[in-house]
Design a protein that fits this description.
alpha+beta, 6-stranded mixed beta sheet, 2 helices, about 120 residues
Length: about 120
């Protein structure tokens, strides 16, 4: 696996093996998220965009049953390459993550400005 004289970082190996170095979704996908206070209640979202920052997955979610102008952004917790749960982003991290999503959405809006697509925005 390694050439003579090369050192392999176990953390880098683990990140690549479990897919933590790239987004887990390459295109929009529907996910159902349960409410911890009411296990019977689930809400379906479409993952519109996700990216990796500091080995953490961040997702922009669009609720399927509600017509909203803005997307919700959360952190996705991944275990062995699969999404296990989503957690809110800490208040002190929110501006940085929002700026990164805004940059991505600005590129998408510019690319598809002639189409009749909804413009991207974020909400807490």
């Amino acid at each position: 696996m390694s050439k003579k004289g090369n050192v392999i970082s176990f953390n880098d190996y683990k990140r690549k093996k479990y897919g933590l170095d790239r987004p887990i979704f390459s295109e929009p996908v529907k996910i159902s998220i349960g409410d911890p206070k009411d296990p019977e209640k689930k809400t379906t979202f479409v993952v519109v965009c996700n990216f990796v920052h500091d080995d953490r997955q961040f997702l922009a979610l669009d609720p399927v049953d509600k017509e909203e102008e803005l997307y919700t952004i959360v952190e996705g917790v991944v275990d062995r390459g699969s999404l296990v749960k989503v957690v809110p982003i800490a208040e002190h991290e929110y501006p940085e993550i929002e700026a990164k999503f805004s940059k991505i959405f600005a590129q998408v809006n510019t690319k598809y400005e002639d189409d009749n697509r909804r413009s991207f925005g974020l909400k807490r």
